[in-house]
Queue: 2 jobs
Job 1
Amino acid sequence: MKQFLGFVKKEFFHIFRDIQTMLVLFGIPIAQLLIFGYAVTNEIKDIKIAIYDQSKDDVTLQISNKIISSGYFILEKNLDHISNIEDIFKKGDVKEVIVFEPDFAKKLQREGIANVQLIADASDANTANLIVNYTSRILMDYIQKENQLVGQPLQIDTEVRMVFNEGLKSVYMFVPGTMALILMLVSAMMTSISIAREKEMGTMEVLLVSPLKPAQIIIGKVIPYVTLAFVNAITIILIGYFVFGMPLKGSIWLLLLESFLFISMALSLGIFISTMARSQQVAMFISIFALMLPTLLLSGFIFPIENMPVLLQWISHLMPPKYFIIIVKNIMLKGTGFMYIWKETLILTGMMLFFIALSVKKFKIRLE
Amino acid sequence: MKTNSENIIIKVENLVKKFGDFVANDHLTFDVYEGEIFGFLGANGAGKTTAIRILCGLSAPTSGDVEVAGYNVYKQTEKVKKNIGYMSQKFSLYENLTIKENIRFFAGIYGLSGKVIKERMNELLESLQITHLKDTLISSLPLGWKQKLAFSIAIFHKPKIVFLDEPTGGVDPITRRQFWDMIYETARSGITVFVTTHYMDEAEYCDRVSIMVDGRIDALDTPSVLKNTYNAINMDEVFLKLARG
């Protein structure tokens, strides 16, 4: 145990004495929080919606059909009670619910005005804004055409409501994304580089010849990065909460636990990378192209997954950060409990075990 | 030098190591005696490093038996590891730790107590005359010093055997001479030294040398016997005669 603690201490010395390492660990997180605040998206496609039609007359049916046939939306479900709205949002697939008031057609005819309510899931602020704008345009279009036919001015009054993020703050989007990116970077990239460095310098051989067990060496390498990644996670949550006013509706303990799971997953990925990389450059290269870019581009962090081509959507399912981002958003914005994120948690756990098994296998082959 | 030819400390029998079709070590059989300086010679690519890695437990042989310090290398690896020291070809200390921290770290992983480490460290720093540099980062030391320090750290836990894999690569002749003085001193203190090199003048300093050619050991004896047998004036000539077949 004393040997092991000495090892961990040595590892901390490496980190604190290397300016580049320190920059990556503590400089980049803050820079990224600022940079990604301006991430923009611009198009939507095949967004899942639900319709709560309290009127069920000719007009609401026509409007519904027009919306669904527009190509932008897919009808996931027809709701029959107001209480279903919250549930369906918490499940996360449906991004918008359209609510028609009772006697919609009658009101439109008699009073010339009827009400429709658009409720959008704004935990992804950009997408929510786009969805609502698209839906409103379709409604406007319908009413204009009707007006031409009938010759009398009709009006549909649209009331928009954003749930989970009423202020449409995009910070709510990039805090979870930055968290995933930073934890990935610190855990996977830094671990793989630091193990590759020992191989490159020849110190790994000296360690393997010593009485330290390989498992002790690996765990000793990993502990400092777990600690620092955790410090980073907490820093990002604090900045999000106090500086940007990001809510934390769910349990902080669940959030930390899930962060810990994600960190462990990233570390096992880092160890796996280091079994393939012979030098620091190779480890860095693999980390950037296999971890950083996909995390940025394919995890739903910047670009909504729903709008990607099918092939990229499939690839995005393989991106661990995707699941972590869903988990963080669910806990922080929607305040959901474990019940709603057990699937994502299970996937991350599976990925972690997969990478550990691969690394162990690779490690054995190397020794032969 | 007190070579005890009765006590065998490394016993290698029919060691074979293959990488696919390539045979790196072809039925090696030799003994190393306690307290001697055993030179393991050969050209680059002759299979020296492969063999030394197997002796240290870093790599598993394809077949054959290897005993180091009385223990089977792959069945009792943990026991072997406690009894050996190793200095790799690449100079291997941590550049961004100080001299003192490097010593503490490596001594620590061999389980030495704080008190012992402190005592031996002071002794070591004094004998290398670097006490005033103990808080200097390794990266700022000249190569020769790093190598001497790496060697001292490899024997810091007083192992029975120390393996040196081309320890003098890339240093100037004076430092090489000083380095060999350290090796002599180590052997005098009872530690067996197993050293690989391709500098043939260094072979003269060894008690016994083995010469590897293409994965086989072609000759093994004291330098003077080898020079007589091959009718050569120095080890360089012995080696050339063997290498050219």
Job 2
Amino acid sequence: MSRTVEDSADIVIVGTGAGGATAARVLSEAGLSVILVEEGPALAPQERSPGLLDAMLESMRDLATVSTRSASPMPLLLGRCVGGSTAVNSGIIWRLPEDTRRDFSERFGLASLVDEAALDRIFTQIERELDIAEVPSETRGGNANALELASQRLGLPGRVIRRNARHCVGRARCLQGCPEGARQSMDISYVPRALERGARLYPLARASEVIIERGRAVGVRGQLLTSEGKRDGRFELRARRAVIVAAGAIYTPVLLRNSGLRGVVGDNFSAHPGAAVVGRFDRPVGMGFGATQAYEVPFREQGFKVESLAMPPELLAARLPGAGRDWQEQLSQLDHFAQFAAIQRVAARGRVRPGIFKMVDIRYELQPEDVQRLRDSVSLMVRMMFAAGAVEVYPGVASVAERMTHPDQADAILAQSVQRKDFHLVASHHFGTAAAGGDPSRSVVTPELESHEVQQLYVMDASVLPTNLGVNPQHSIMALVFHAAEKLANRESVRRAAA
Amino acid sequence: MTRWEHIWAVEVLAAFAPAAEPRIGSSQPSKNSQLAPREGEVDYLRTFRRMHAGSTPLAGLGLRFALWMVALAPLWLLGRFATFSKLARAERTELLSRLLRHTNLVVRELALLLKLTAAFALLGTPSVRERSGYDKPQAAANVVREARRALPVFVAPAKRVDVVAPPPAFAINTAHDHAPTARDRVAS
């Protein structure tokens, strides 16, 4: 412990992802002084490593080995750098679906937070500020074109993905962090914007506790880290008006519980588990060029969404069947593969708690109806891959044929004998562990996103969403946080005027 | 990691993508072996160590356990009193294939974790990556690029941000070049 950093501001924000950065953008422009704390490093686009392992070590928490504790563990993708997960995702933008908005309003008492007119105004503003638009045809890439073709041939409701990218040149490196600075992730959009307004950023600083005095949150303390993740001192940041926790749906409840909050903190965890299908074509697909994700086919009523997902070659290689010479033959045709993935709006609910050795304990088991949804979506993706022209499809389901050569083989995946343990799943969107709501016995924060338990303590990230969405959540998180941060700024303004 | 684990890490990871062999009746390697590494070209041990160090403690333990699982698989899977090191090349490949298809999820996932590590090592090697032809810099360069606006590229010190004196509380920002903010709305 060689260094000690002390500082103070009106607002201290833990986390620089979609929630924390948006709060900083609104509050700093409202004239409040803001400090941002981020556990990961600050990386400029040109500093991002092209190699996947280097990039993941720099900006992905624990190399994506944080997993659920369940009969069939599921790894979770979590960004850990300035920009949070927005720096290493595909930038897919969806407004909060209307059925979910109504559900939040009616079932969880969040009418003021999800007010239709306010959200419409905010969505529009964010879309303008982050250059949100459909992926242009010249950078969609062969993988997305394959999904579009399948969608057209099968008469499915496909659409070009809308992303927050500005002049993307199609390097297919979204998951490593865009080397062009094209994707308008928080590290190159709202964080710099807040810094221009005087906000101060502490990267490589891991918050360990919210300081609570006489029932009020008054600051944050934790450890400073080296770029290798070793301890390098401690910090204590005092907040005059509010502490905002925006560390994501896994680490926000851990921080809150480590700060003494209890109740339902960490309960109600939900996610969007994803499964993928790979197809081999007899011609080059060119997965190595284009936006990482550029085309999607939503099946809202069925509870899943199929997306094109171009992979870095390391991950694609691991996904191909076989070993030895068999595997090498696959690798020699890396540009002949396409991949589709389906995110599932599952019913399962779990819980998140601090674990031993500073790990996190995530209990999460899919329900029988979730497994049926998995069967449906993977079986459909196999058929879609054949419709796109694949000559061989790898469904990635352990109890059926490893390689399929005819679409009718997809029916085998629908059998009841195919179980959860047969699927390899990854969860990239996480929700609900500090849910907002009007009832303190069922929620952690109010509709204004302030803690029921501790004054001046706010949660502004995906934790506050009481259910999963069925669509990519970044835009919804930003809009709800934008709205809540505006209200906080307004209250501070009124308070100052009164004073 | 123990000395045995070092040896097994190299042997097991290399077995996923063994060095190229000449085609029968030819002195040239098969076209399909173009990604096969040359002797010493890929540093499997370094990749394994980096994966181990970067993972959660539990996943790091899982990586090591995966090595033991594969190293002793001839015994528990094939019923042969031998370790992985004693197997011939073709037998190693067959063993890995069986582990990757195993009915037990834990066995399957641990084998996949090693395969992923091998893929990281193989395609993380620049010379192999170049031979793969996966990256398409030419295609990217061919995209018609509009003149890029100056981005607010964030360049922050990688290691430390010096503490600066906090600005006065509730300082009023007047330089708005964006849409009206919450403060503007309150003021109006």
